[in-house]
Amino acid sequence: xxxxxxxxxxxxxxxxxxxxxxxxxxxxxxxxxxxxxxxxxxxxxxxxxxxxxxxxxxxxxxxxxxxxxxxxxxxxxxxxxxxxxxxxxxxxxxxxxxxxxxxxxxxxxxxxxxxxxxxxxxxxxxxxxxxxxxxxxxxxxxxxxxxxxxxxxxxxxxxxxxxxxxxxxxxxxxxxxxxxxxxxxxxxxxxxxxxxxxxxxxxxxxxxxxxxxxxxxxxxxxxxxxxxxxxxxxxxxxxxxxxxxxxxxxxxxxxxxxxxxxxxxxxxxxxxxxxxxxxxxxxxxxxxxxxxxxxxxxxxxxxxxxxxxxxxxxxxxxxxxxxxxxxxxxxxxxxxxxxxxxxxxxxxxxxxxxxxxxxxxxxxxxxxxxxxxxxxxxxxxxxxxxxxxxxxxxxxxxxxxxxxxxxxxxxxxxxxxxxxxxxxxxxxxxxxxxxxxxxxxxxxxxxxxxxxxxxxxxxxxxxxxxxxxxxxxxxxxxxxxxxxxxxxxxxxxxxxxxxxxxxxxxxxxxxxxxxxxxxxx
Length: 521
Prior knowledge:
Order of helices and strands: HHEEEEEEEEEHEEEE
Number of strands: 13
């Protein structure tokens, strides 16, 4: 295009000369015209020359017609009297075009005298994508392509995170926004655990792989039970209860108030309580652990009630109903001072009633033999001869209290009788010592029998006052009888009441033994 523009600029003076010659020819006669032809001055213009020519130009050969040569070498003749060419022509071929002189010439598309917003400094029109960076046009780069995945993107802008174009060399994504917790971070990276940005599905993200802080390397908030020990917060974390670590991530220790069955604890109340010993075992009298919070005064782990620690894990004391061996003579568990056992747990002299004579006392002082010297007391009323508050001995009471008791028994008048039992058929009879079973002394244990006939309210018979010569075997009350619990070795039953006419007598033996599988009556 530049060449075409320059040719037009060269043709214009030539056409003007032709026109001027024509005008002059028409204004004179032939002679004048011929004269003009021989005398005319010509002013040639050569394509490619620059500058301005003024004044007449005369050739040496007046007979040669004036010629004008264009850029192609062809010539045209014209008749003029005088030719004058003025002005500046862009694109003439007077020399090589100079880019940057402010004049568009040659093959220049533009010339702004240097880089402008419309023109590059190589005199080509400024265009994003032409491969030339034109800062005046606001270009930061120009790689001459339309690839938005390289370092220069649309608009000749340098690729940057956030421009919406993924620069494949340095970006994993680019969503063109400043939302940091969506599918593409503000650093143009795909969301990953450890990028310090909390994304969907993550509870935290501290950008490190330390598992002892508040955020695990898996981007989950540190919690007790995750198997990682959070520094300064947890003592341990075994992902559950273990022998060394509680479920609350504290170190397992009896007395910490946390039940840890893996550590062998049955309970843990943070110390001794009414339900739990200090060693984290349940309270139990007899476990050799004294638990004062549970009311224990001692615990010797045995069921011996004649030592220093008696039933209920209580320290032995006078009045507890247990005779402390080597310390007490007796202990009837009451506060009656004038019965067989004083309130100082010393034996009071046993006093037979109804004028009866005291014939013998057991080594323990808790059983005696009383006799009506007049033989005026019916056998069914023998209990009236016993000391106040005492009763006829049951078979088990006799067996338990007769150790080393040397008192002979036999036939009349040495027959000794104890409790009255109802017989299996009808009527009643005494536990009888002397005439039966080869028993000759009270220190021998006799089998159950209902030998000498008698009578009682619940099994009345006509026999009960025909053997008045018998002697009464009397026993002090068993302190355990009546507590509602059958205690060995003296009890067969214990109904917790003092009703003498029901099935369990007040000495804690069965009224009718045969009804309970006990033979002998």
